[in-house]
Design a protein that fits this description.
- The chain has 367 residues and is an alpha+beta fold.
- It has two domains: 162 residues, no CATH class; 191 residues, Nucleotidyltransferase, domain 5.
- The chain contains eleven helices and 15 strands.
Length: 367
């Protein structure tokens, strides 16, 4: 299983300037290669290499391996994510001046003994110290493949790909259904509720503050907006990390698989009022699902995706499916047998029952 370890570099001012120049030069080369690719309608890495390798080296004075990584970055940009080999020829791609660049072992070496890296820059090789957390230090022992150099607010980071061994899946006889929502982040089949009220309050407060600052438009307002940038996202991600950790721990402790709804594309096919659009599109359900999936793999817990259709309208007692069963957002009451309860809890029960626990990890099960 591949995970990413984030490492912070501690360059001197001269080294920081060299790293920034390297990113700017490499991304300028990416723009040059992208223009050639677009004009010649050549997008695959092999053909791009033969088209512009020599021109890039002569024009930008890049090393051989950095030039190869630049061409690979452009080729990847013209490839549809998730569609192996399918090209995106609809638009001419351009690159940010300080966008990340991939390094491999030819141009980046890790020296764990003195916690430094030797990295290629346009000013030659630089030996730069780094710091990381205990968890990241353990992961670096299994580092494989490329590492991405990135800059954020004048701070430089390396994102190293690490191959972590997965344990064998545990034996399960049942599934813990989990219903995901906007009002409640997650509700499981045992009735445990992970409320989203605090996240929604934070999102509303940040949304209102951003609107005020953008309307004001002064330089101080823009500085404040820059300081606030990413704060809401980090808060929501931390909350999703904690919720996913609790769900996986409960499933492992009770020897159950985890059943989740497959909500792919929900923002496109769900219709909401204008006042609810911002809330829907800021809903980080896919991020929560990804966190649950990777934590479950590390814990050996199977994860099953099920069809979400009518999970909150189906009675778990008589299996009656009726829109009228869902009285309100939170209230469920069967029109046939009278069974009643909290709607999200009912949905979680139905999700758990739909899951086939003998499916492989992250399987798709239709109702």
């Amino acid at each position: 299983m591949k995970l990413t370890a984030q490492v912070k570099l501690l360059p001197t001012p001269e080294q920081a300037a060299a790293l920034k120049r390297t990113l700017e030069t490499a991304n300028a080369a990416c723009d040059f290669v992208s223009s050639l690719a677009w004009n010649e309608q050549v997008f695959k890495k092999y053909h791009l290499h033969h088209l512009c390798y020599q021109a890039v080296r002569e024009r930008f004075s890049l090393s051989a391996q950095i030039t190869v990584r630049v061409i690979a970055k452009v080729a990847d940009a013209y490839t549809h994510p998730g569609h192996q080999g399918k090209l995106d020829k609809k638009s001419h791609h351009k690159f940010k001046p300080t966008g990340s660049i991939a390094y491999d072992d030819r141009i980046l070496s890790w020296r764990m003994g003195d916690t430094t890296v030797s990295i290629w820059t346009t000013d030659g090789r630089q030996r730069i110290s780094f710091v990381c957390g205990e968890r990241q230090w353990e992961m670096l022992a299994a580092r494989q493949g490329e590492s991405d150099l990135s800059v954020f607010r004048e701070m430089f980071f390396l994102y190293a790909t690490c191959e972590v061994e997965e344990p064998n899946p545990i034996e399960t006889t049942d599934a813990l259904g989990v219903d995901l929502g906007v009002k409640n982040i997650a509700v499981d089949a045992d009735g445990e509720i992970h409320s989203a009220s605090h996240i929604n309050k934070v999102r509303y407060r940040h949304r209102r503050l951003r609107a005020k600052l953008q309307a004001k438009g002064t330089r101080s307002a823009k500085r404040k907006l820059k300081r606030l940038s990413g704060k809401e996202h980090r808060f929501a991600k931390d909350t999703n990390h904690r919720v996913s950790k609790q769900i996986v721990a409960k499933a492992k402790g009770t020897k159950r698989a985890i059943a989740l709804e497959d909500l792919s594309g929900i923002c496109q096919w769900v219709t909401v009022r204008r006042c609810q659009r911002a809330t829907l599109h800021s809903w980080a359900f896919y991020q929560l699902r990804q966190l649950v999936e990777y934590k479950a793999k590390l814990a050996g817990v199977p994860v099953v995706l099920v069809n979400p259709r009518n999970t909150s309208r189906t009675c778990p007692e008589c299996e009656c499916v009726d829109k009228a069963n869902r009285k309100t957002q939170s209230e469920f009451s069967c029109v046939v047998c009278g069974f009643a309860g909290f709607a999200d809890h009912i949905a979680a029960i139905n999700i758990g029952r739909r899951a086939a626990v003998n499916q492989p990890n992250v399987a798709r099960v239709d109702a």
